Amino acid sequence: MIRMVDLEALHGPIKAELDRAARAVMDHKHFVGGPEIEEFERAFAAFVGHRHCVAVNSGTAALILGILALDLPKGAKVATVANTFVATVEAILWAGCRVAWVDVDPRTGLMDPDSLAQVLAHEKVHLVLPVHLYGAPAPMPGIRELARQYGAEVAVDACQAHGTRVATADGLMPAGWGARWAAYSFSPSKNLGALGDGGAIVTDDDEIADRVRLLRHHGQRQRNLSLRPGFTERMDSLQAAWLLAKLPHLSSWNRRRRELALLYDRLLPEAVRLRHDLYGVSVFHLYPVRVKGRDAVKAGLSAQGIESDVYYPKPAYSVLPGRPPRLPATRQLLQGVLSLPLHPHLTEDDVQYVAGYLLEELAKA
Ligand SMILES: Cc1ncc(COP(=O)(O)O)c(C=O)c1O
After folding, report:
1. Secondary structure of the chain: what % helix, strand, coil (to 5)?
2. Which CATH architecture does the domain made up of 250-364 adopt?
3. Domain residue ranges in the chain
């Protein structure tokens, strides 16, 4: 079976490092707020190229606390895409805001600046929240410029983008470039995954870092002195210890994903491929293709022992009641999108096998 994710293959070679990391936490017993937290925050901030990292216990928590830290007015509108995991939208709602929907660019599946321009011209938006979906960079320079014109903040959902680079006039920049903060998820299947849930806000802004630190721990800097209402959204020491053990491998895992993705690119016709590097450098959390007769293709691949999955089977507005927004490019994309196996422990032969059977299925369709 060629799998979408292979945690056995990922963790097998580093099992001794993971065991050592867990043992250290068991020994010092600071299960909450142990030394691994700050150590991981320093290391991940350096990896992604920002000044601060505040570790929390999921990507969803990072998004909620990040939006709350912007202190937007109640009911403020946040512009985002429906081609994303539902958590992007849940976070907007739980932070007391409303959603302004932006369509995607069919070439990339990412936020379309032309659609954003229309939204900003027609409604007052306080925050623009693009998603670096599949690990591919959203068009940040265009988004930042539009947000500036209309006086909106920018933040980014980088939950699938550990190491993604954004192309700017000054060269390649970190995934959080042009944004007040970037939110990350370390759920187990991510390019950098914990052995459980985890997340982080990464930022160059001292104020945002400080507010998220307060929010993740009951508004407290000091025990029993709450400066604002907060949450229990800290990352566990154990997860930080495991993430610290895995982080030194992330660059080589990302490099390998890229080699394999570029091999898919060479083997597959242009009509099925999405443009992943149009606005920078992707880290290929996923390798999505666009196919006709998606369910039949998926079943055909499965019959050959090839897993595939749909990100996402439903637009993220499906969590909301009421009439769905008009997002023609998003709808069309979601009808045909299918992600092929891509992880650092696949072989070139695996990729050729998958691409070969995909071509056969496409010929049948
Ligand atoms: C784009 C996106 N946003 C948000 C999240 C939420 O992260 P978590 O599952 O860690 O809460 C995810 C994780 O799947 C994601 O892929």
Report:
1. 45, 20, 35
2. Alpha-Beta Complex (3.90)
3. 7-244, 250-364
Q: Which of 56, 58, 60 to mutate to test the pocket of ligand 1 (most atoms within 8 A of CB)?
A: 60
User: Would you say the CB of residue 2 lies under 6 angstroms from ligand 1?
Assistant: no
Buried b (16+ CB within 10 A) or exposed e, 53-71: bbbbbbbbbbbbbbbbbbe
- Residue 182 confidence (pLDDT) above 80: yes
Query: Ligand 1 centroid vs 347 CA: distance in angstroms?
Result: 27
Mean pLDDT of 52-75: 98
Average pLDDT, the chain: 97
Tens of pLDDT, residue by residue over 318-344, are 989 889 999 999 999 999 999 999 999
Q: Is 168 in the pocket of ligand 1 (CB under 6 A)?
A: no
Q: Evaluate: CB of 131 within 6 angstroms of ligand 1.
A: yes
Length of the chain: 365
What CATH fold (topology level) applies to the domain 7-244?
A: Aspartate Aminotransferase; domain 2 (3.40.640)
Q: What pLDDT shows up at residue 191?
A: 98
